[in-house]
Amino acid sequence: MTQVPPAAVMIAARRQLDRLWARGNAFLGTKVAIMGGAMTWVSERNLVAAISNAGGFGVLACGSMPPALLAAEIAATKRLTDRPFGVNLIVMHPQLAELARVCVAAKVGHVVLAGGMPTAEIIKILKDGGAKVIGFAPALVIGKKLVRSGIDALVIEGMEAGGHIGAVSTAVLAQEILPAIRDVPVFVAGGIGRGEAILSFLEMGAAGVQLGTRFVCADECVAHPDFKKAFIRASARDAVPSVQLDPRFPVIPVRALANKATAAFMATQRSVIDKVDRGELDMKAAQLEIEHFWAGALRRAAVDGDIENGSLMAGQSVGLVTQAQPTAAIIAELVDQALAALAARARDAAEAEAEAGAA
Ligand SMILES: Cc1cc2nc3c(=O)[nH]c(=O)nc-3n(C[C@H](O)[C@H](O)[C@H](O)COP(=O)(O)O)c2cc1C
Questions:
Q1: Of these four, 53, 63, 71, 85, which has the most CB atoms within 10 Å of its CB?
Q2: Which numbered atom of ligand 1 lies nearest the CA of 37?
Q3: Does residue 67 lie within any of the structural domains?
């Protein structure tokens, strides 16, 4: 039997992986087309810079920051890395246009618009200012609409993800959207925790991937130690979506580790619904009160370390988070897993060929 030299196999595997995510790397300006999904209160300067310095693409979470704070955070991140990184803006932020102008003034190369359909005005401010704009597509129709509106790339995020989630799984979204949208690079997110999964989405046509949960226990991540410990302890089934109590008040489900806050969210919904029924609160105010519940709760857990009463937003891939690691080690591990899968396949093919030749 012909022995394929392992070094040659690994070189071929690396070339193949580089080809598979070449479009994503060209778009992001990276070596490794892995985006660190923005996580409010978690994705600040240190984690973002660490991901970019490790060859990936860090994304700052603006969350509810005012424009001046975002400007300061971008400047601080630039002091920690000279590699490309992005900024994630939530489209319902009341000062969205100002935040977009902050990104343009700071020459942020990529802006991710999350939490709803961005307006033409916002896309124009960003694109005229030279930024590439990335949108979230929770369904094929929305993806097509975003492409028509001039968006430069898409993230498709399945319901396995942590934080606010859609209704469809990553596997199904990928099958619906990847073959149908080829005009712009598409990055797959939600439930990804190993390199083999990254490889499979790249082979389906993804330009790259986005991971959030997997980076929470990175050494450089400033999340509270107890928040990180909860991630290390948890298994996939502990990361559950919040439940909507009343169809009049739609709740965008939030996936988080079950704790006292999970029950408190139900109680909040119940009390808000009662207030509306008694005429003490209008529908709009009630909806806002329900939506605001998790914003404050995430800060309590991720910053203050109150892991019972705060929100432990986490994706199902939390089951694959087993230890604290440097960010560079996490990225290296993901890349090595993808390479090992490619190399194993190449060895199998070479052996099959050799056996066929010998027969
Ligand atoms: C704690 C936490 C906070 C998050 N905050 C945001 C956010 O502010 N904006 C956003 O677009 N996505 C947010 N996400 C989603 C991530 O950016 C990312 O898309 C998601 O974590 C990917 O799925 P995964 O967790 O299975 O890797 C958050 C996720 C987590 C776990």
A1: 85
A2: 17
A3: yes
Same structural domain, 239 and 167:
no
Q: Answer yes or no: do 202 and 138 share one domain.
A: yes
Say whether both 49 and 159 belong to one domain: yes
For the CA of 155, the closest atom of ligand 1 is 19
The answer to whether 32 and 331 are in contact (CB under 8 A) is yes
For residue 293, the model assigns a pLDDT of 79
Contact 209, 161 (CB under 8 A): no
Tell me which residue has its CA closest to atom 28 in ligand 1. 39
Residue-wise DSSP of 210-243: EESGGGTTBTT--S-HHHHHHHHH--GGGEEE--
Confirm whether pTM is higher than 0.70. Answer: yes
CATH number of the CATH domain containing 26:
3.20.20.70
**Residue whose CA is closest, atom 20 of ligand 1?**
212
- CA-40 nearest atom, ligand 1: 8
Our count of domains for the chain comes to: 2
- Please give all residues whose beta carbon lies within 6 A of any atom in ligand 1, as ranges: 37-40, 42, 61, 63, 88, 114, 157, 160-163, 189-192, 210-214, 313-315, 317
Task: Please identify every stretch of the chain with a pLDDT value under 70, giving residue numbers as ranges.
Answer: 1-5, 295
CA gap 245, 233 in Å, rounded = 29
Give the distance (Å) from ligand 1 centre to CA of residue 189: 9
